[in-house]
């Protein structure tokens, strides 16, 4: 089969010219289109997006650095600073920019003479850092230290020296729990807010106390600094600087002098003091000791100091004013007496105290083993007789007592600017049934009427109770100076009942009662009050038969709490006070609740005289709280060094220096230890908290 031969196409010059022209047109069209696109894009970039690329170009040449704003001051009622700012040279590390962390930290430790525990803290924070959060190396540097780091920045990538302001607390530990402290924002804070200010070196946020509660109010607006840099980031010159706007100040009701005095007057004890203005409920002092120095926390507390604070059995990290709960002991007896008067009990009616009373199958004791004999209401409060209140409370029942307790502030929740509070307990039959699904028993009433059993209170509530007994008004505690508040309601009892209670509370201190140690040395000023002793352990029948062990012979945690609440002047109440000493046990007279409360009140009437007494007392206690804490830290650091084998034990060190000491002059003896005798006036020892003790 033959296939047809295709016709051969004849290519001529004309056909070649046509084909070339057609292809040239297609290529030319494509080139034109591409050219038009390029011109359009260039026009878009140069005109429509001119600002964007100009900013990007400028950012390669200019660095914009935020300037942390200064926090607003916190001042007392007289304008005296409780928290302010001071000029500060500091050095931070930016983790994501560090090349060799170990070498960088070592170099900085040498330049800045950092302590080993500071180096350990820095390394721990670098390990935990999310990369963008700056890690503080040191602050409060001298200019020479600041300059020594600044000139070596090319060899220290990731190091950020800066000049700014740091938070400062002039009163130190005495305002630790009241004001709280500031610190660097956490990674969680940044993830929530995405605010670049949070990762700016030197910027701090409120972490606790009033610093945390009013953080937004205290935080100002950041400033900014523009500097011209090379491609490698070296600063060429500073262009412009926009200053920061400081935060708003806060004026508190606190009296700075009184606050510091109260903290120092608590001496070596673990406890709290609260003072309230009876005219309006302003809190004048709110001290919880021992405490922490907020300057240490704001600067970045070392691991060693944190360990020391967390292991201290006096619990310096707990705000005892708001978070501590204690059985109120006999400090509730004036309140119970007010409930008795409301129920129709005559203040002249007497009860014979023989030292013990049987309730059901349980024997409840009075603190005076042989009894007080016949006592009326005034005498029972003055001598803190338990038997009187055991009998009377059974007559009126717990519901009436619980109602009065709530009216004077016990168990009440106050609207306060603190993130963590404990509110205590006012027990009654309904409460016990709901809480434990058990019926209320007579012995529950007996225990509660002397402030034991289920009843709990915090020091602020105790101060409010004292203020309401003094005024007959339901005053509410307040921390902001000049805050608008409604007129307080009345407690709801006749004035003659209040007069009876105030007179009995005056007899406690000034009429031969249990609180004689609280007598004030201020002319024409009498303090009225009520002492209290709250048991923390059960006293067995065998121990009572053989003699109850004194608090001085017990371990710290088994000693009774010592309490005092009162007001002054007695005849025209102006100030109310509450003092609780944890496990104080009335073992040291000068450090007992009644005398601490009396001296603190004396400061309000004669500051100079009160300070002179305090300075004298502090010589026997080992100095101010700051001085005692410094020695405690040094001892703890030495103990840790010995534990790690970095220092010889004291015996070895003493043997090594024996020859040198033999030729050295004899050192002056240390000051004598404070007396540990029991108070002259004594106090009440409540009955056991449960029915199981005969």
Name given to the CATH homologous superfamily of the largest domain:
DD-peptidase/beta-lactamase superfamily
Question: Main β-sheet, in a few words?
Answer: 5 strands, mixed
The quaternary state of the protein chains shown equals single chain
CATH topology of the largest domain: Beta-lactamase
Q: Count of DSSP E strands?
A: 19
Q: What proportion of the residues is helical, as a percent range? A: 25-40%
If you compute it from the alpha carbons, what radius of gyration comes out, rounded to the nearest whole angstrom? 37 Å
Question: Can you describe what's shown?
Answer:
The protein has 694 residues and is an alpha+beta fold. It has two domains: 65-248, Penicillin-binding protein 2a (Domain 2); 256-627, DD-peptidase/beta-lactamase superfamily (Beta-lactamase), CATH 3.40.710. Helix content is 40%, strand content 15%. It is built from 27 helices and 19 strands. Strands 2, 3, 4, 5 and 10 form a five-stranded mixed β-sheet that branches. Strands 12-11-19-18-17 form a five-stranded antiparallel β-sheet, sandwiched between helices. Strand 14 (356-359) and strand 15 (362-365) form a beta hairpin. Helix 3 runs antiparallel to helix 4. One of its GO terms (molecular function) is penicillin binding. This is Penicillin-binding protein 2. Residues 271-592 form the Penicillin-binding protein transpeptidase domain. One of its GO terms (cellular component) is plasma membrane. It is a single-pass membrane protein.
């Amino acid at each position: 089969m033959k296939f047809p031969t295709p016709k051969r196409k004849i290519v001529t010059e004309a056909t070649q010219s046509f084909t070339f022209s057609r292809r040239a047109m297609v290529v030319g069209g494509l080139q034109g289109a591409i050219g038009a696109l390029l011109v359009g894009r260039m026009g878009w970039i140069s005109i429509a997006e001119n600002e964007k690329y100009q900013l990007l170009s400028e950012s390669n040449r200019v660095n914009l650095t935020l300037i942390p704003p200064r926090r607003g001051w916190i001042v007392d009622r007289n304008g005296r600073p409780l928290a302010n700012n001071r000029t500060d040279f500091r050095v931070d590390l930016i983790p994501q920019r560090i090349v060799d962390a170990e070498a960088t930290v070592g170099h900085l430790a040498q330049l800045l003479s950092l302590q080993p525990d500071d180096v350990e803290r820095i390394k721990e924070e670098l390990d935990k850092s999310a990369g963008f959060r700056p890690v503080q190396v040191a602050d409060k540097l001298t200019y020479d230290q600041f300059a020594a780091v600044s000139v070596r920045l090319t060899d220290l990538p990731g190091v950020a020296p800066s000049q700014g302001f740091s938070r400062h607390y002039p009163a130190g530990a005495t305002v630790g729990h009241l004001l709280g402290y500031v610190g660097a924002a956490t990674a969680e804070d940044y993830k929530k807010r995405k605010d670049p200010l949070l990762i700016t070196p030197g910027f701090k946020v409120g972490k606790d106390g009033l610093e945390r509660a009013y953080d937004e109010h205290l935080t100002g607006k950041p400033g900014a600094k523009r500097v011209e840099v090379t491609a490698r980031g070296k600063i060429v010159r500073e262009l412009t600087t926009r200053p920061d706007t400081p935060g708003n100040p806060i004026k508190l009701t606190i009296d700075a002098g009184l606050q510091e005095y109260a903290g120092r007057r608590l001496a070596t004890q673990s406890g709290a003091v609260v003072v309230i203005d009876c005219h309006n409920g302003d809190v004048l002092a709110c001290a919880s000791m021992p405490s922490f120095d907020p300057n240490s926390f704001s600067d970045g507390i070392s691991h060693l100091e944190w360990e020391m604070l967390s292991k201290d059995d006096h619990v310096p990290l707990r705000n005892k004013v708001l978070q501590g709960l204690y059985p109120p002991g006999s400090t509730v007896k004036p309140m119970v007496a007010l409930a008795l008067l409301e129920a129709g009990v005559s203040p002249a009616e007497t009860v014979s105290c023989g030292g013990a009373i049987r309730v059901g199958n349980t024997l409840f004791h009075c603190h005076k083993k042989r009894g007080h004999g016949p006592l009326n209401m005034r005498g029972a409060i003055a001598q803190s007789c338990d038997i009187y209140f055991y009998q009377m409370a059974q007559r009126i029942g717990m519901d009436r007592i619980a109602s009065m307790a709530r009216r004077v502030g016990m168990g009440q929740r106050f609207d306060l600017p603190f993130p963590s509070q404990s509110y205590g307990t006012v027990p009654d039959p309904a409460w016990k049934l709901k809480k434990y699904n058990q019926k209320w028993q007579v012995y529950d009433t007996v225990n509660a009427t002397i402030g034991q059993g289920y009843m709990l209170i915090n020091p602020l509530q105790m101060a409010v109770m004292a203020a309401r007994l003094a005024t007959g008004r339901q005053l509410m505690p307040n921390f902001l100076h000049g805050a608008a508040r409604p007129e307080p309601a009345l407690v709801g009892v006749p004035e003659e009942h209040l007069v009876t209670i105030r007179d009995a509370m005056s007899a406690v201190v000034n009429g031969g009662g249990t609180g004689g140690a609280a007598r004030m040395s201020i002319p024409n000023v009498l303090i009225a009050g009520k002492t209290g002793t709250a048991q923390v352990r059960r006293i067995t029948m065998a121990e009572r038969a053989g003699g109850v062990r004194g608090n001085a012979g017990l371990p710290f945690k088994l000693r009774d709490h010592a309490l005092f609440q009162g007001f002054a002047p007695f005849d025209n109440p102006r100030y109310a006070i509450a003092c609780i000493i944890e496990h104080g046990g009335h073992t040291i007279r000068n450090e007992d609740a009644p005398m601490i409360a009396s001296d603190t009140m004396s400061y309000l009437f004669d500051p100079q005289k009160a300070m002179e007494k305090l300075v004298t007392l502090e010589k026997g206690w080992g100095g101010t709280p700051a001085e005692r804490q410094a020695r405690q830290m040094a001892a703890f650091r030495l103990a840790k060094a010995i534990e790690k084998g970095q220092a010889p034990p004291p015996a070895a060190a003493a043997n090594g220096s024996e020859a040198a000491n033999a030729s050295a002059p004899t050192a002056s003896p240390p000051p004598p230890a404070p007396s540990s005798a029991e108070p002259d006036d004594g106090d009440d020892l409540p009955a056991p908290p449960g029915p199981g003790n005969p």
